[in-house]
Amino acid sequence: METMCKMKNLRNPGQNLLLLGIILIMLILPVSAATPEENAEAIADVQTALTVVWLILCGGIVFLMHAGFSLVEIGLTRVKNTTNILMKNFMTVCLGIVVYWVMGWAIMYGADYAGIIGSDQFFMSGADNAIWTSWWFQMVFAATGATIVSGAMAERTSFKAYLIYTVLMVGLIYPVFGHWVWSGAGILTSGPIVDAVGIGYHDFAGSSAVHMIGGFSALAGVLLVGPRIGKFRHGKPVVIPGHSLPLAFLGTLILAFGWVGFNGGSTLNGNDPYIGLVIANTFLAAGAGAIMVLLITWMKTGKPDPSLTANGMLAGLVAITASCGSVASWAAVLIGLIAGIIVYVGVMFNEYTLKLDDPVGAIAVHGYSGAWGILSVGIFAIGQGNGIFADAAYTAAGAGLLYGGYQQFMIQVVGLILAVIWAFGISFIIFKVLDAVMGLRVPEEDEIAGLDIKEHGMSAYPEFVLAKE
User: Fold this and answer.
1) Closest by alpha carbon to 454, among 159, 166, 165?
2) Is 281 within 8 Å of 324 (Cβ atoms)?
3) What are the Cα distances from residue 158, in Å, to 82, 154, 251, 451?
4) Taking CA atoms, which of 183, 258, 282, 438 is between 20 and 30 Å from 157?
5) 403 Cβ contact list (under 8 Å, min separation 6)
6) Phi and psi for 237 in degrees, rounded to 5?
7) Rounded (to 5) percent helix, strand, coil in the chain
């Protein structure tokens, strides 16, 4: 009987597999354990690899945002301009990749000259694998500013003029301000201005460096190109409906997803313990922004406005981009709520007071809400060494006004003013020159017929075009 029990136990598959696993582990394990130094080195290698993968992945997520911008823009504009908008956004990406390789990176991160501009690494000379990883992550941000301008000037802007402007945006406008903010040697993070204020400027992921630069450049372009035919009658704005609300909403959600990479990736560290909190703050502001606009439009008109509500989400995302690594979650909600108010008031102000024609609301979403995002750092930042982001290297150095500080707010105001002057001023000059040389706006007959046929010779939806008999 005892022999039979032993044989029964040996026939138990679970026990046999466990025994086999133990034997294999013993055979695979090295005879001598690794030293503490070897273990530390192995852990460091894993952490480095994780960061590289994190930045490449987040860059890919941000790259997808260009699809979101394309869908928002075609959804909120008329069917006859769909191909043109798709081509502009597609070529923004293609030009952005090459131009940022040629000169954008060098101007933004090359050796500093007077705190104003980078002066080497053109064509990425001397780049190693670490720099290429950083180039990839920064490059996907670079073309975003031009895409913002594309939407604001949609349906009446020359394709050739826009392409030239895109080269200058990615190669000069964006990287110069980016150098001031993110290079570590620019005028907003070191030098006389910072010495005078006593603290450096803070823009975690680009409320000013990306969104304000795009938004106020768009303001210059819209002022010069003028409104679409039929947008204003007797001085009052006329609604020109977009052709596909589903595409606009899908684009909005893709853009929101892109902010996982936009803000989450800006930790620049795949091992960062606060990535989850950064992303949580991001989406708390997004939700709050949308809710606020929904409530405003519902109360004012009796019906919640879909496209403005979608812009409320984007406004919340833009506003929190500067501060998501520096504020508590309740502050993120408040920042989003105020961004919702700003985007609604901004759209109304642009149309009814300034008589500006911005088909997608880009100026209010990116320019005005981006400015609020910069100021919100100086109001709500907990301050380095304090609170939930106490040991995060990327949190704002100074405490905001609500925590008894004032220096951070002061430098934020300085940075905001410089962003507006630089983006609006240089873009106004560039658009003025383009208008004089080749014409910024298409002829009236081309605008009426639609830019798809006149600029590209084809419709985006040929099956819906009735053939002439």
Assistant:
1) 159
2) yes
3) 14, 9, 24, 9
4) 258
5) 381, 382, 383, 386
6) -70, 145
7) 70, 0, 25
Of the candidates 103, 139, 137, which has an alpha carbon nearest to the alpha carbon of residue 118?
Answer: 103
Which of 313, 275, 306 shows the shortest CA–CA distance to 394? 275
Reading the block at residue 116, the tokens are 């104003």
Q: Count CB neighbours of 250 within 10 A.
A: 16
Closest CA to 157 of 211, 213, 75, 92: 92
344 Cβ contact list (under 8 Å, min separation 6): 292, 293, 296, 297, 308, 312
Report the b/e string of 137-158 with b at 16+ CB within 10 A: bbbbbbbbbbbbbbbbbbbbbb
- pLDDT tens by residue, the chain, 469 residues: 444 444 444 445 555 555 555 665 555 555 445 687 767 777 777 788 888 999 999 999 999 999 999 999 999 999 999 999 999 999 999 999 999 999 999 999 999 999 999 999 999 998 988 899 999 999 999 988 889 999 999 999 999 999 999 999 999 999 999 999 999 999 999 999 999 999 999 999 999 999 999 999 999 999 999 999 999 999 999 999 999 999 999 999 999 999 999 999 999 998 899 999 999 999 999 999 999 999 999 999 999 999 999 999 999 999 999 999 999 999 999 999 999 999 999 999 999 999 999 999 999 999 999 999 999 999 999 999 999 999 999 999 999 999 999 999 999 999 999 999 999 999 999 999 999 999 999 999 999 999 999 999 999 998 765 444 3
Give residue for tokens 């993070």.
189
Euclidean distance between CA atoms 366 and 215, whole angstroms:
5
CB distance 412 to 375 below 8 Å: yes
Q: Are 244 and 462 in contact (CB under 8 A)?
A: no
Distance CA 247, CA 46 (A): 41
Q: How far apart are CA 253 and CA 272, in angstroms?
A: 26
What residues contact 174, with CB distance under 8 A and at least 6 apart? 104, 108, 142, 145, 209, 210, 213
